[in-house]
Amino acid sequence: MKVAAEVCPVYGGSGWKSSNADRRVVRCDCRLKSRAASLLTSARIPKRYEHCELSNFEFDGPHSNLMPARMAACKFVEEYPIDNAGLLLIGSIGVGKTHVAVGIIKELIVSKGIPCLFYDYRELLKQIQNSYNESVKATELEVLRPVFDTEVLVLDELGAVKPSEWVWDTVSLILNTRYNDNRTTIITTNYPDESARDSNGTSDFARAHRAARAETLGDRIGERMRSRLYDMCRIVKMEGADFRQTFKSASFR
After folding, report:
1. Is 0.90 surpassed by the pTM of this model?
2. What's residue 244's pLDDT?
3. Per-residue pLDDT for 140 more than 80?
4. Which residues pair with 16 in a beta bridge?
């Protein structure tokens, strides 16, 4: 038995409503809600982060250091697409980078109807590798096409895969394609945005320096791509306590 489609009781299902201010017609709220629901489904936001919104991101009390990051996220949403420069969210594990990134794209989808896509960096590389298997029907281009084409992409945990020539080439392809097409990319990473060049060289001191220091974003994705990010994104550094540890501590009190 067929079920009749729900029709907007106010505007008769036309999808448009009149604007008394300037006598124009604009999209009906029902149509906007329907589009937002569809975009949220196709955004691939993991279930673990479905609750994440900018409105419920903690930035006071012990997390007051995160207030600038939340302000930067809200400003990004407000000014998009007039200003479509991306964001590079840098911070230690558990500081809330993914929460902010998901909150941004959910707000863009719901309030502005912007198509967005979330991808974990490790999962994306794994899907690309799987496409080389003859038993897998999806080709590399079919995996990458939505990554290239989506208006706003969240690339979570950039640098989380051990670097290799293939990894560097793949990262270059993704970032350069989106850069050349003027697409907006929001990136999160646990690795500090510091140059590895200071420890380059073959001297004993240089080798010891490389061994002693922590890996940087440049180490993980290559200095060329690290430099490209400066053209694509604004840097937002997030410093604070690990939310996961804070939650665990509170649960045992």
Report:
1. no
2. 61
3. yes
4. 27
* pLDDT at res. 21: 53
- How far apart CA 113 and CA 79 sit, in angstroms, is 14
CA torsion sign for 70, 102, 181, 163 is positive
| CB-based contacts of 52, cutoff 8 Å, min separation 6 | 98, 99, 102, 103, 106
Domain ranges of the chain: 18-251
Cβ atoms within 10 A of the Cβ of 163, count? 14
Q: What letter does residue 153 receive in the DSSP assignment?
A: E
Say how far apart CA 88 and CA 227 lie, in whole Å.
12
User: What contacts 73, CB < 8 A, 6 or more positions away?
Assistant: 54, 57, 87, 100, 103, 104, 236
Question: Between β-strands 16-19 and 24-27, what pairing exists: parallel, antiparallel or unpaired?
Answer: antiparallel
DSSP state of 203: S
DSSP per position, 82-133: TS--EEEEEE-TTSSHHHHHHHHHHHHHHHH---EEEEEHHHHHHHHHHTTS
CATH of domain 18-251: 3.40.50.300
pLDDT recorded at residue 34:
83
